[in-house]
Amino acid sequence: MSQSWSKKRFYILVLVVCITGASQGLLIPLLTTLLEEQGVSPDVNGLSATALYVGILIASPLSASLVGRYGYKKMVLFGLFITTLAVALLPFFSGIWEWSVLRFIVGIGDSLLHYATQLWITTTALESERGKRISQYGFAYGLGFGMGPLGLNLLVFGENAPLWTMLGLLVVTLCLALQLQEEASPVTDQQRESKATKHQVATVYRVGLVALCPALLYGFLEAALAGNFPVIGLREGISKSWISVLISAFVWGSLVFQIPLGILGDKIGRKRLLMAVCSIGAVGMFLIPFLMSNVWALFIAFSLIGGMIGSIFSMGLAFLADLLPARHLPTANVIASVHFSLGSMLGPYLGGLSIKVWGGHVLFYLIAGALASFVLLALTYRSAVVAEPSLPVQEKQIG
């Protein structure tokens, strides 16, 4: 029995993604700011920020089997529960190691619920609307992630005020998620038999390498900006309130363009669109260091750059669904989650190290170089096309 499309379920799922995105958007800059004020060095601070993504990385390979065994709904609820529990414990601790452990637990919860929601939406959306639905999913996550840093403004009411506010939102979301209904087994018998064999993983990489890279890139730039920009901003004399607004501006820009870009990708091809937005993003990131003295210029730049490259994760997922047959999508989603986790782990640490050794401006050159490298890869790599099982795999250029 196949899953049917349900608007009610879709709206609940995007709400779940929105609130958990807000938890990530808040926790990364909030704890980074508090640790900076405690005198923790930028590289160690960045390393602590990666704990959340280590949790995502470790949980990602388990996600497919857990969703296949227990179903989408149970994994969404379990992921929400342990995320909520970790956030509830954060106000009772203040040390870097305790916060790192709780960040790790949040990462596990986020990994499970994001995998389940991504796959649930991807496999049930109508093919003609896939790009739009996945872009709406990305919009919801971006909306939450963009709202999260604004919680820094609640620090005037106490160090734990942002955390208690986030806890309340998570509890409400958990109650709403209980209304989800599991209509069918989320994994077909054929997918259970294959269980992401080495051959299947190799096929996914051979066919979808270009589509998998945006997850790595987005994880890198998102975590680097959220985890390192508070340090750069404080050292440049930018206020905490402006730091929160600037981090959010990057995400707000992506929200404006998220759905239009998703629809545009349906029409002109997602590979071409990814190359175009990453080229623009690389130029924009290279120019950011020259605008540091003017917060309004930074606000405009972050909004425009975010508008261009803030959608690359959802574009990559839609591109994967274009390239791969349905039987490979569970494996492809796991690999995309691992890529996102790896990028998110590298971003704060390499960013913190660059701040310590060369200064904060190098972070933006690093991101620009990564985006330019992807464009070169997309120009030169020839993706294979997976034919039906009875037919051989054919090689051709994907546009």
UniProtKB/TrEMBL annotation:
<feature type="transmembrane region" description="Helical">
    <location>
        <begin position="138"/>
        <end position="157"/>
    </location>
</feature>
<protein>
    <submittedName>
        <fullName>MFS transporter</fullName>
    </submittedName>
</protein>
<feature type="transmembrane region" description="Helical">
    <location>
        <begin position="332"/>
        <end position="350"/>
    </location>
</feature>
<feature type="transmembrane region" description="Helical">
    <location>
        <begin position="273"/>
        <end position="292"/>
    </location>
</feature>
<feature type="transmembrane region" description="Helical">
    <location>
        <begin position="47"/>
        <end position="68"/>
    </location>
</feature>
<keyword id="KW-0472">Membrane</keyword>
<dbReference type="InterPro" id="IPR020846">
    <property type="entry name" value="MFS_dom"/>
</dbReference>
<dbReference type="InterPro" id="IPR047200">
    <property type="entry name" value="MFS_YcaD-like"/>
</dbReference>
<keyword id="KW-1133">Transmembrane helix</keyword>
<keyword id="KW-0812">Transmembrane</keyword>
<feature type="transmembrane region" description="Helical">
    <location>
        <begin position="241"/>
        <end position="261"/>
    </location>
</feature>
<feature type="transmembrane region" description="Helical">
    <location>
        <begin position="75"/>
        <end position="97"/>
    </location>
</feature>
<dbReference type="InterPro" id="IPR011701">
    <property type="entry name" value="MFS"/>
</dbReference>
<feature type="transmembrane region" description="Helical">
    <location>
        <begin position="201"/>
        <end position="221"/>
    </location>
</feature>
<keyword id="KW-1003">Cell membrane</keyword>
<feature type="transmembrane region" description="Helical">
    <location>
        <begin position="12"/>
        <end position="35"/>
    </location>
</feature>
<feature type="transmembrane region" description="Helical">
    <location>
        <begin position="298"/>
        <end position="320"/>
    </location>
</feature>
<dbReference type="InterPro" id="IPR036259">
    <property type="entry name" value="MFS_trans_sf"/>
</dbReference>
<feature type="transmembrane region" description="Helical">
    <location>
        <begin position="362"/>
        <end position="381"/>
    </location>
</feature>
<dbReference type="Pfam" id="PF07690">
    <property type="entry name" value="MFS_1"/>
</dbReference>
<keyword id="KW-0813">Transport</keyword>
<feature type="domain" description="Major facilitator superfamily (MFS) profile">
    <location>
        <begin position="9"/>
        <end position="386"/>
    </location>
</feature>
